[in-house]
Amino acid sequence: MRLLLVEDDTMLGSALRAGLRQDGHAVDWVRSADEANTAWIVGKPATYDAVVLDLGLPDGSGLDLLRRARQRRVATPVLIATARDRIADRIAGLDAGADDYMVKPIDLDELAARLRAIERRVTGRAEAAVIIDDVAIDPTTRSVKRGSEWVDLTARELAVLLALAKRPGVTCSREQLIEALYGWEESIDSNAIDVHIHHLRRKLGSSVIETQRGLGWRLATGGRG
Fold first, then answer.
1. Which of 134, 144, 189, 205 is most exposed, with minimal Cβ within 10 Å?
2. pLDDT in tens, 110-158
3. Using an 8 Å Cβ cutoff, are 160 and 197 in contact?
4. 2-123 placed in CATH 1.10.443.10
């Protein structure tokens, strides 16, 4: 998933960004309501699969930012991550259009699980590993098996595979994969996607990922479990 992290606390923001990247997400981190408004609402809302939003920002309210997004029909899923723990605050956040609400301190494993749940709801994939030949890709558990063996993938390799698995048989361009994998501040080698695809084919078999010359790559069409 490509995420927008809106968090003004430098130490917490850095830790959340690092943890989410370790889990295979592309993360853009902003520290103010104005930056978030520019990146998310005024910019290209469709860029982000979800927003992790703090409410107490130095230049405004995260809740006002969320209301503004919903008023403009920006439908990006939002997970509020805040120190405000009163029931009334939770109700206000959810009523303003949040999809989930977490109270700090944030556990990274729980945050990752909640983001996976949001992704399942948005994509309508509550079930189903994607099965191609003897390879089973389960977006719910972010796990991959080949035959009876678990396949060990790096976070980047898994992110590429899950991006392709969202729509088996549909071609993803190089630019789409880069956008799904890398945040603003990350350096990208010119052949990074090719390297990830090469490693995935070596681990999963050459027929799982098909090259569409001049267009990009797609997951071969297979059955669904």
1. 189
2. 999 899 888 878 766 555 578 888 888 887 777 899 988 999 998 889 8
3. yes
4. no
